[in-house]
Design goal:
13 strands; Rossmann fold; five-stranded mixed β-sheet; binds NADPH dihydro-nicotinamide-adenine-dinucleotide phosphate; binds ligand LZUJQKHR; Dihydrodipicolinate Reductase, domain 2; alpha/beta; single chain; 36% helix; eight-stranded mixed β-sheet
C-alpha cells in the first residue's frame, strides 16, 4: 500500500484522484492540500499549501500526486526535494523557468511529469511518430477541445504531440495558431486549433493530408477517472525510483 499526498485536492482532477484512490487497495490518501476555503473533500480534511513541508514530515508519504497550477507545483516540488518524497504532477502550462525548477528538484527525488495520464495518449504518441515518419511532406493540422474552465492553451497534451512530431518529421515546421482573413496555408506550417466548450474532458486530433488521402488520428477522454487512474499508477511505480525526471511512457514501458 502506497501512501499518497494529493495537492490541488479540491479541483476537478484532485477530487477525482481522491475518489479513484478510495476504490483502490494499492494506494491510500494520507493528506490533501488545496488553496480552497472548503474544509473537506470526500472525507479528507483540506490543508493549506503553506503546510506542505510539515505534512510531508508528519505523514512521510511515498509520493505526492499533484494537479494544481504551475507556481504551486514548483513550490511542492521544492518541498518534495527537501523531504525526499517523489512527485507525480499532471499540471500543465509551465513556463521554461518553472520547468527548470522541476528539473532541479529531480536531482534530489524522483519527479514524473505528464501532460496526459490516459494510456490511449501513449498509443497515440507512438502512432503519431510512425505517421510523421511514414508521411513526409503531408500537411498536418492539430485540433484540441477541452471544457470551458481550462486555463492554458494549447493543452499540455497538444504540446507533447507537437514535440513528438518535431522529433520524427524530416521537415522543420512552424506552428500557426488559428487562421483568419486572407491567410493561405504555407508549406511547413502546422495549424493548431483550440476549442473550449462545456465540460469536454479532453479531445485531441491530428490530421495528415497529402497524396490524395487523409489520415486522422484522434483520442477522446470520456471521464477524468482515466487521468486519475494513470496518475495513481504512476505514483505506485515512482515510489521506489532513483532521483530523475520520468515520463508516463516510462511507466507504460515498465
Ligand atoms: N496530466 C493529465 O492527465 C491532466 C492534467 N490536467 C491538468 O491539471 C491541472 C488541474 O486541472 P483541473 O483539476 O481541471 O483544475 P482545477 O482548477 O479544477 O483545480 C486546480 C486546483 O488547484 C488549486 N490551487 C490553486 N493554487 C494552489 C496552491 N497554491 N496550492 C494548492 N492548490 C492550489 C485550485 O484552487 P482554487 O480554485 O481555489 O484556486 C484548484 O482547486 C491543469 O493544469 C490541467 O491542465 C487536467 C486533467 C488531466
Ligand atoms: O485541463 C484539462 O482538463 C486537461 N488537461 C491536460 C492537458 O492540458 O493536456 C490533459 C487533458 O486533456 C485534460
Amino acid at each position: 500500500m502506497r501512501r499518497i499526498g494529493v495537492t490541488g485536492a479540491a479541483g476537478r482532477m484532485g477530487r477525482t484522484v481522491i475518489e479513484t484512490a478510495g476504490d483502490r487497495e494499492d494506494v491510500a490518501v494520507v493528506f490533501a492540500v488545496d488553496a480552497t476555503d472548503e474544509e473537506k473533500v470526500a472525507d479528507k480534511p483540506i490543508h493549506e499549501p503553506d503546510d506542505v513541508a510539515a505534512l510531508l514530515a508528519t505523514h512521510e508519504p511515498d509520493a505526492i500526486v499533484d494537479f494544481s497550477v504551475p507556481e504551486a507545483t514548483v513550490a511542492f516540488a521544492d518541498a518534495c526535494a527537501e523531504a525526499g518524497v517523489a512527485l507525480v504532477t499532471g499540471t500543465t502550462g509551465f513556463e521554461d523557468d518553472q520547468l527548470d525548477s522541476l528539473k532541479s528538484a529531480s536531482e534530489d527525488v524522483a519527479v514524473l511529469k505528464a501532460a496526459n495520464f490516459a494510456r490511449g495518449i501513449q498509443a497515440l504518441l507512438a502512432t503519431v511518430r510512425a505517421a510523421a515518419g511514414a508521411l513526409p511532406g503531408y500537411d498536418v493540422e492539430l485540433t484540441e477541445t477541452h471544457h470551458n474552465k481550462k486555463q492554458d492553451a494549447p493543452s499540455g497534451t497538444a504540446k507533447t504531440l507537437l514535440e513528438a512530431l518535431a522529433e520524427e518529421r524530416e521537415e522543420d515546421f512552424e506552428e500557426v495558431y488559428g487562421r483568419e482573413g486572407i491567410d493561405p496555408r504555407e508549406a511547413g506550417e502546422i495549424g493548431v486549433h483550440v476549442r473550449r466548450a462545456g465540460d469536454v474532458r479532453g479531445e485531441h486530433e491530428l490530421m495528415f493530408a497529402g497524396n490524395d488521402e487523409v489520415l486522422t488520428l484522434s483520442h477522446r477522454a470520456e471521464d477524468r477517472g482515466v487521468f486519475a487512474a494513470g496518475a495513481l499508477d504512476a505514483a505506485v511505480w515512482l515510489a521506489d525510483r532513483d532521483p530523475g525526471l520520468y515520463t508516463f511512457g516510462d511507466v507504460i514501458e515498465g
